[in-house]
Design brief:
heterodimer; A: alpha/beta; B: alpha/beta; two-stranded antiparallel ribbon; 16 helices; binds zinc ion
């Protein structure tokens, strides 16, 4: 596919108009190869079918593509096995569950290593759609290696420090699969995705924690005596954030009082387990925990909202309500600052998203390490410069309890594209994530571009760029049985609100 | 986390609507049958389409009254469809009746890059034929000459040597992304230099909306965020140039790739092979191509992608407080970054990775000292070379640093860069010496 599409530069997107049909086909093909990256089970099946069909008419697409389909299914399984944190497997996705000693993962991974070794050897010459596999298997290889490092009992005494690049001779590249065997036995070393260095476990901890310490001190995120609410979802970012903040607070005498703040959206089966994790964190770190539910804050749980609006727009409600829930919770707890678990990947992705949306106001705001709006509690991101991969590594090495918090409802397709793109860039050049944040930090908005003023909502008093904030708008819609209100353009909603009888008597 | 991030609102993206049956008649004149369909819904006849495209071009050129009567304008033609269309539009504009006529004085430029890629042998001749046909003033210059020679407008006997140097630079770069980035920067250098030599005060290049959107996004991915307006803007004041203010204009920037393709088709314009290092490479070998694929794929599902990215670029400006420009790309340098920045965080990461537990007690300075101690291997030139690299890097922007770090040897860099660098050093030394006397 890729060698059929020879468009090399933007202005060659339409090479010749006479082959408009070919162009159409090309686009379809491009879609297929893109979709293969997402590696859904379905895509694997579809690709296989397409090639079988194509083989009947065009001999140029060889059977390799059929293998590609097979490969997709394989990679899909692998992906699941590395990503799954759901304790109960969903039917048809057996490997997407927590790793236990009895689970099918170990058998599968052993097989996977063999297959991946094969892929490594042949993808370089494998042109048809293989580009994406090559990439993804690398990424998954990394994940898999992380797992292997983690699961093998670590023997501190036998630790062979000669392979750590901190103060020792550097091991510049990650060991090949052939070498991994001996490495696993000889101790625990970690490849730092961010710098390309290989560090021993202890040095990795130091590097990881010191970097966050330096982010906190350079960004002046906290003052002595501050009460800091950690937004705790039970996910890896917030769990690692809580662990690191506790460690640093004790080690460097920040003199902070840390509290965990959790929001319960009221989604059956989604928060139940993750809140359990937060409760465990509370005991382990001995921090006070406050759980606030949407039901308490807004009178509506997400389950109820879904029953009302269906699954199409519920992420809007979920996101808008959560944004404010943290502010409301923090006010209740009377804290000085909220710390959120946004990592470098999240921020780079948001920079890309805001460019794709043309939203320069948010483009500027999203790279701020600390957001201070008048009348609200400041928010900061101590993990702003920390790579997601290293967070996962830290959590595994430290055997931290965390929970995958992927939303159970329909995901936002657009953000998915941006995420895939970012992962592609990171694979090509690990510094890409930092490069994008650097770009975001140094871009300036033209003076004549009008940016929305940020004020407070006249109804609830929380931050809003409109007179009435989005949360109040959505809430009013729900309470009035007009759930679509506030989903579209704000101006439309304002009109609708104004058209309602007696707007001054609206109950918020 | 839920796919709706806390930081963002809840806008719903415009999704492709099911295709409605199209009108048969042109939407402008309502008489002629349609020949062209734009954005999957607008139907135009050939005549109305041509006047629409020409109007867009004229509007962009005339908009900010940047080009004065009789001003010499360097028109860069690469051979791409976009560039041959630009040439045709300018030529057509010069033939118009008095009040519509373009009044500037174009100098058409083709940079011959055949030393870097396999072009058909007669490519240059064909380009020359084309230029002759239009009857405008033109120049065909070899890329290597434009980079290294002082009088590149005349035949230079050293051209073989220059060709070797140019080839060396690129063979000394191992990373495809950086190779392409370097090519872009050297092209820009060559064009700027030639504009000065040819006494042109305006430069026109033919990038269209689509290409500029991809460039914007890959610039962001390369860490060139602060240079976006320089690279995609309508007009760029080259503040580096003391004598004249050189302005780059991109008259095709409001036209889509499709519009240009139709324009070229209706005017039967032949385009030529024009390569870069990414030609015939796969999409996952370089950041630029990955970006291109990303934008193209997104454009299929969300037809407003390109124009939205492009409009984002319109709202980004240069830092007005910039005081320093990069030696290599002439872009803005990101100096005086706050300690809380991606740049400083990256430096710290490298330091911490090297020092491990020691990092806490020792400072960054210690690391620098230790490094210089290590490097002292007597009588050998490798230290000097390493030092030169580090010194030059200090005069480079964030993204160009990546290029020079990957470059094995600095010997083949254009003299101006090395000399300018020496000048800068000299100036610094002088400042050092007299600083006690300054009040
Ligand atoms: Zn170590
Ligand atoms: Zn409100
Ligand atoms: Zn017409
Ligand atoms: Zn530069």
């Amino acid at each position: 596919m890729s060698d059929k599409d020879q468009s090399t530069e933007g202005d060659r997107l339409v090479p010749k108009l006479t082959d408009a049909h070919v162009y159409e086909e090309k686009i379809k093909k491009m879609k297929v190869s893109h979709a293969a990256q997402v590696f859904s089970q379905r895509v694997g099946a579809i690709m296989k079918r397409i090639t079988v069909m194509a083989n009947n008419c065009t001999p140029s697409i060889d059977r390799e593509a059929a293998d590609t389909g097979q490969l997709c299914l394989f990679v899909d399984n692998l992906f699941d096995s590395a990503n799954g944190n759901v304790i109960k497997p969903t039917p048809g996705k057996d490997l997407r569950s927590a790793v236990t000693l009895t689970s099918p993962h170990w058998v599968f991974w052993n097989k996977a290593l063999d297959v991946l070794r094969m892929i490594n050897n042949f993808t370089s010459t494998h042109s048809v759609g293989a580009n994406c596999e090559d990439d993804d298997s690398d990424g998954i290889l990394d994940n898999l290696k992380d797992f292997l490092f983690n699961e093998i009992p670590l023997n501190e005494e036998n630790e062979d420090e000669e392979n750590c690049s901190a103060q020792h001779d550097a091991l510049t590249t990650f060991p090949t699969l052939e070498q991994t065997g001996s490495l696993i036995n000889s101790g625990s070393r970690a490849y730092r995705p961010k710098t390309g260095d290989t560090l021993c476990k202890e040095c990795f901890y130091w590097a990881f924690e010191l970097e966050i310490h330096s982010t906190i001190t350079n960004g002046k995120l906290f003052k002595k005596g501050d009460v800091v609410a950690i937004a705790a979802s039970g996910g890896k970012d917030s769990t690692v954030l809580a662990q690191v903040l506790k460690t640093l607070n004790e080690r460097y005498n920040y003199e902070l009082k840390l509290v965990l703040l959790s929001i319960d959206e009221g989604i059956t089966g989604y928060r139940d387990d993750s809140l359990k994790t937060v409760l465990e964190n509370k005991d382990e770190y001995q921090m006070p925990l406050k759980i606030l539910s949407y039901e308490q804050l807004y009178g509506w749980s997400m389950d109820k909202i879904v029953a009302e609006v269906g699954r199409k727009n519920n992420c809007t409600f979920c996101g808008v309500f959560r944004r404010q829930a943290l502010d409301r919770g923090a006010t209740l707890l009377n804290v000085n600052c909220i710390a959120t678990g946004h990592n470098a990947d999240d921020i780079a992705e948001t920079v890309l998203m805001n460019i794709l949306r043309g939203d320069v106001a948010r483009l500027q705001r999203c790279v701020n390490i600390i957001t201070i709006t008048e009348g609200t509690i400041p928010r900061c991101k101590p993990l702003k410069y920390t790579y997601e991969k290293e967070i996962v590594m830290y959590a595994y090495f430290k055997k931290l309890n965390y929970f995958s918090t992927e939303c159970v409802f329909a995901p936002n397709a657009y953000r998915g594209y941006a995420r895939t793109f970012l992962k592609d860039l990171e694979r090509l050049k690990p510094s890409s994530i930092m490069d994008i944040i650097h770009s975001g930090e140094t871009m300036c908005v033209k003076e004549n571009v009008k940016l929305p003023d940020i004020g407070v909502c006249t109804k609830c008093g929380f931050v809003s760029s409109q007179d009435i904030c989005k949360a109040c708008m959505l809430l009013e819609g729900l309470n009035r049985g007009l759930p679509k209100l506030g989903i579209g353009k704000s101006s439309k909603a304002n009109k609708a609100l104004a058209a309602l009888p007696n707007p001054s008597l609206l109950h918020f | 986390m839920c796919s709706v991030n806390e930081e963002e609102g809840a806008e719903v993206f415009e999704v492709l609507k099911p295709i409605e049956p199209l009108e048969l008649k042109c939407r402008k004149c309502l008489i002629e049958d349609g020949n062209v369909v734009l954005q999957k819904k607008f139907v135009y006849c050939k005549t109305c389409f041509m006047s629409m495209v020409t109007h867009k071009f004229r509007a962009t050129v005339g908009k900010s009254k940047l080009v004065n009567r009789g001003e010499r304008v360097l028109v860069c033609v690469s051979g791409s469809q976009s560039s041959v269309s630009l040439l045709h539009m300018i030529w057509t504009g010069l033939q118009q009746s008095t009040y519509k006529r373009l009044t500037f004085d174009p100098v058409v430029l083709y940079i011959d890059e055949s030393v870097l890629y396999d072009y058909p042998q007669d490519q240059v001749n064909k380009i020359q034929e084309l230029f002759e046909k239009y009857g405008l003033t033109y120049r065909i210059v070899k890329f290597a000459a434009a980079i290294y020679s002082d009088n590149c407008l005349d035949e230079d006997t050293n051209i073989d040597q220059y060709n070797d140097k140019l080839q060396n630079i690129f063979s000394n770069l191992s990373d495809l992304t950086l190779k392409e980035d370097m090519l872009m920067k050297l092209r820009k250098r060559a064009i700027t230099k030639l504009a000065e030599l040819l006494k042109c005060t305006r430069i026109m290049t033919a990038e269209n909306e689509h290409k500029l959107s991809i460039r914007l996004l890959s610039n962001v991915a390369l860490g060139r965020g602060s240079q976006i307006s320089l690279d995609i803007g309508l007009a760029v004041n080259n503040k580096n140039n003391d004598k004249t203010s050189l302005v780059t204009i991109r008259p095709m920037r409001n036209l889509s790739a499709k519009e240009i393709a139709y324009y070229a088709l209706f005017n039967m314009l032949e385009d030529f092979m024009h390569s870069n290092f990414l030609t015939a490479t796969s999409e996952d070998e370089s950041i630029q191509k990955t970006t291109e694929r990303f934008v193209n794929d997104l454009q299929v599902d969300f037809p407003s992608t390109v124009s939205t990215i492009f409009r984002t670029g319109e709202k980004i400006s240069e830092k007005t407080s910039a005081i320093s420009y990069c030696l290599l790309c002439q872009g803005i340098m990101d100096v005086n970054m706050s300690p809380s920045s991606a740049m400083e965080a990256t430096k710290y990461s490298k330091y911490v990775s090297l020092m491990g537990v020691k990092a806490l007690k020792l400072s960054l300075n210690y690391l620098k000292n230790e490094n210089t101690n290590e490097k002292k291997c007597d009588g050998c030139k490798c230290k000097d070379k390493q030092d030169l690299k580090e010194e030059i890097i200090e005069s480079l922007c964030y993204a160009c640093t990546h290029i020079i770090q990957d470059l094995q040897s600095l010997d083949d860099l254009p003299e101006e860069i090395l000399n300018k660098h020496k000048e800068k050093l000299q100036f610094k030394k002088m400042e050092e010496q007299i600083k006690d006397f300054l009040l």
